[in-house]
Write a structure and sequence with these properties.
With 358 residues, this protein is mostly beta strands. It has five helices and 27 strands. Helices cover 13% and strands 38% of the residues.
Length: 358
């Protein structure tokens, strides 16, 4: 005598195994296997091997000899909840569904990302542990897409379809001439890593990673101008600035202490390419924050539009520096345990980028 195995699951997609000698199974028989009573309070769904989910007609039987017809879901419910996932419409038997169940019944592979479409706010990324209320709207709409990772190079953000990317590929994507020499530092939430053209970048950390790219120093035999060190910086600040492979100085003028970064590169969209960037360093830094920044020559938009709150100047060693009045507040408030020259330069980059829409 032939035997057919069936699996019956609940709303959590937890299945139990049963067997029958009859290839035709009815709605009532499925409910009987799991002791689901009274009959009129339950729905039965056929869960096909192709991921299709359809309600079982209470007056018809299911032929187990058909491929993929041996999985059933039983829900205690008084209605069906409709969803649309990519191009497929799915009925679900209860008000709540987990992200994992949603992914399973729709056949979305684990490497793809799943999102809930929303009209008045950003679409919501759905994790396996999320519980979704299907009673909020008549039809919930979900979509899947391949995961992607972002990398910021200078002021532009580039998107990749995998977390591990070669430095060579990243520079090519950003339009760099690979025949020239470049010094590169990958900046992540956990720290900084020096990179070469033959290295790879791991973009799997949360947030947008940043790759600092600077031309390699070229020495034609001339002695590099000596840098002034009128006061000492923190060791971590010295390491950071030295790794940038740029000329920097600390000077004192009219009772104020200044860090001057020579030849600082500003993003495209301004009327200058490089400036001397000045930061005022308080005497009890980092307990007291670094505030604002100063430019010589002035950094003006290439389209002639003025930059807000840059009209005042500061004289440093006889040179006029344009003051960018930019202050920290709210979530960006200065934290002496974390913030330093590096994080303030990130704020400088953000301010420049914001002015030219980058």
């Amino acid at each position: 005598m032939e035997h057919w195995d069936i699996r019956i699951g609940d709303q959590n997609l937890e299945f139990r195994d049963f067997g029958t000698n009859d290839p035709l199974i009815t709605f009532d028989q499925v409910l009987g296997y799991v002791n689901a009573t009274p009959r009129d309070e339950y729905d039965v769904y056929i869960f096909g091997s192709d991921g299709e989910l359809k309600r079982m007609d209470p007056e018809k039987s299911q032929d187990l000899r058909q491929p993929g017809a041996e999985h059933f879901l039983v829900f205690r419910t008084d209605r069906a909840y409709r969803m649309k996932i990519d191009d497929d419409r799915i009925d679900w038997g209860v008000r709540w569904i987990s992200g994992k169940a949603l992914r399973t019944i729709s056949g979305i592979p684990p490497e793809a990302e799943l999102y809930l479409e929303r009209k008045d706010e950003a679409d919501r990324k759905i994790e396996d542990c999320d519980m979704l209320d299907l009673d909020k709207h008549s039809v919930e709409r979900f979509y899947s897409r391949k995961p992607h990772w972002k990398l910021k190079i200078r002021q532009n953000v580039y998107t990749f379809d995998r977390a591990i990317v070669s430095v060579r590929e990243a520079l090519t994507e950003a339009g760099f001439d690979l025949q020239k020499g470049w010094d590169m530092v990958l900046i992540t939430a956990s720290g900084r890593q020096n990179k070469t053209i033959d290295d790879t970048l791991d973009l799997s950390e949360p947030g947008i990673e940043k790759l600092r790219v600077k031309p390699k120093a070229v020495n034609n035999g001339e002695a590099r101008p000596s840098s002034v060190r009128a006061f000492d910086l923190l060791e971590k600040d010295v390491r950071f600035l030295d790794n940038l492979n740029i000329r920097w100085e600390t000077i004192e003028d009219a009772g104020k202490r200044w860090l001057i970064i020579r030849g600082y590169e500003v993003p495209p969209g301004f009327d200058v390419q490089r400036i001397d960037l000045a930061l005022m360093i308080p005497k009890n830094y980092p307990a007291t924050q670094i505030d604002m920044f100063y430019c010589n020559p002035p950094a003006k938009r290439a389209d002639g539009r003025p930059c807000d709150k840059t009209q005042k100047n500061e004289v440093i060693e006889g040179h006029s520096y344009q003051r960018w009045s930019r202050h920290r507040d709210g979530v960006s408030a200065w934290n002496p345990d974390i913030d330093c020259i590096e994080t303030h330069l990130e704020l400088v980059e953000e301010c420049f980028g914001r002015e030219v829409g980058r």
